[in-house]
């Protein structure tokens, strides 16, 4: 199988801002062409697109909670790029819903939203992109964005922790089934890292406690996570297929 080190066709879901933007920039700086997906934040996605190095990138909108939306996103990305060699499943929701404070009707709705976006959209995009990679015949890479919370627990965001654990398991199943086609599948499990969304928490009263989670005394950066994603999508990382790479600054250790 021939997975090039650069010049690849890459679809990054949820690339409007935060980690998705950092991942898109990392691939573009590597010489790859990127389809920047957005759900509702089109203007922010255009900012991401404008910031990418190189040429030949594309903007792709669509609601991944709808299975037909996933089809439209992959079709549009493949048409714009001429195919798909790498998929990064980054799109996710993370809504606070501690059980003791959340009414049942809200609890049900939040769980359904997390499952639809975090898990089912990841599964659907993986199917659609992998089938294209198989038909192309050159192999490929799928990298899933999981979470430390899948192992440590998320008391205020239980649906997030549960769906990210499922994403890890999905990635390992696909790693086994897709290896004969030259497609490697891996996941990253980031701890707390800085983005626009969490800036108020890091800069606010709980900032010191968040930084103290790691013995390095800081939070991670989106660029650090993106660098790991870029490596897992590289030809050199094929033997890491099936891995779940912890990226948490030694804030949660497991063996």
UniProtKB/TrEMBL annotation:
Membrane-crossing residue ranges in chain numbering: none
UniProt cross-references to InterPro entries, sorted A to Z: NAD(P)-bd_dom_sf, Sc_DH/Rdtase_CS, SDR_fam
Keywords linked to the UniProt accession: Oxidoreductase
One GO molecular-function entry: oxidoreductase activity
Superkingdom in the source lineage: Bacteria
Entry annotated with the keyword Oxidoreductase: yes
Similarity comment: family membership: Belongs to the short-chain dehydrogenases/reductases (SDR) family.
Protein name: Oxidoreductase
Native source organism of the sequence: Streptomyces gardneri
């Amino acid at each position: 199988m021939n997975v090039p080190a650069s010049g690849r066709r890459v679809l990054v879901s949820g690339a409007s801002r935060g980690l998705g933007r950092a991942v898109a920039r990392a691939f573009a700086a590597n010489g790859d062409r990127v389809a920047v997906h957005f759900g509702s934040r089109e203007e922010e996605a255009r900012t991401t697109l404008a910031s990418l190095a190189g040429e030949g990138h594309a903007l792709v909108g669509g609601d991944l909670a709808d299975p037909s939306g996933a089809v439209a996103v992959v079709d549009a990305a493949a048409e714009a790029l001429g195919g798909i060699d790498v998929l990064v499943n980054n799109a996710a929701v993370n809504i606070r819903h501690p059980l003791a404070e959340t009414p049942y009707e809200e609890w049900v709705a939040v769980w359904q939203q997390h499952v639809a976006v975090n898990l089912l959209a990841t599964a659907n995009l993986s199917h659609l992109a992998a089938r294209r990679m198989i038909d192309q015949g050159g192999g490929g890479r799928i990298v899933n964005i999981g979470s430390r919370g899948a192992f440590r627990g998320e008391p205020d965001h239980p649906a997030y922790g549960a769906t990210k654990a499922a994403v890890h398991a999905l990635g390992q199943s696909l790693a086994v089934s897709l290896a004969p086609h030259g497609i490697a599948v891996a996941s990253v499990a980031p701890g707390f890292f800085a983005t626009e969304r969490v800036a108020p928490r890091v800069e606010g009263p709980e900032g010191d406690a968040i930084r103290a989670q790691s013995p390095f005394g800081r939070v991670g950066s989106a660029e650090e996570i993106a660098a790991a994603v870029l490596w897992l999508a590289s030809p050199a990382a094929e033997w890491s297929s099936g891995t779940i790479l912890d990226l948490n600054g030694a804030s949660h250790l497991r063996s």
